[in-house]
Amino acid sequence: MNKNQQRKTLLALKQTLLQAQETGDQAEQTVELDQSRVGRLSRMDAMQAQAMSKETGRRRRQKLIQIEAALRRLEGDDYGFCQDCGEEIAPARLEVDPAVLLCIDCASAREL
């Protein structure tokens, strides 16, 4: 995959995440505690859904940061190289996650 294709892939992923963020922001809003409108179990369900939405939003924002960093690396010719060992990241790995920072060996070593 050439630089132009990589850039298009990253920008498309960024756009998808930004669109999802718009709908996710509503789900993260504070749960209303009006007992006349919602029973206790329903409030608990709503609070659990809110917590899950907040975590999803946090992960989405983190992924957006990673995509922005990948776009900067692409401009600086650092894209596609492992940040730990400096070796080239396998193209198949970049296709799965175009914002990945580490080659498979370094990523596996960090998990240990």
Written description of the protein model:
The relative contact order is 0.14. Helix content is 67%, strand content 0%. The two termini are 31 Å apart. It contains four helices and no strands. The radius of gyration is 19 Å and the shape is elongated. It is mostly helical and 112 residues long. It has two domains: 3-79; 81-112, no CATH class. The longest helix is centred in the middle third of the chain and has 36 residues, at 40-75. α1 runs antiparallel to α2 (40-75). The mean pLDDT is 86. It has helices spanning 3-27, 40-75, 91-96, 104-111.
Short synopsis of the structure:
The chain is mainly alpha-helical and 112 residues long.
Q: How much helix, percentage-wise, in residues?
A: 55-70%
What is the average per-residue confidence, as pLDDT, rounded to a whole number? 86
Number of strands: 0
Biggest β-sheet strands, sense, barrel? none
Beta-strand percentage range: under 5%
Shape label: elongated
Count the DSSP helices. Answer: 4
Low-confidence stretches: none
Number of domains: 2
Spell out the helices and strands N to C.
HHHH
**Which structural class fits the helix and strand makeup?**
mainly alpha
Give the N-to-C terminal Cα separation: 31 Å
Secondary structure: elements and pairs:
Layout: H1 3-27, H2 40-75, H3 91-96, H4 104-111
Helix pairs in contact: 1-2
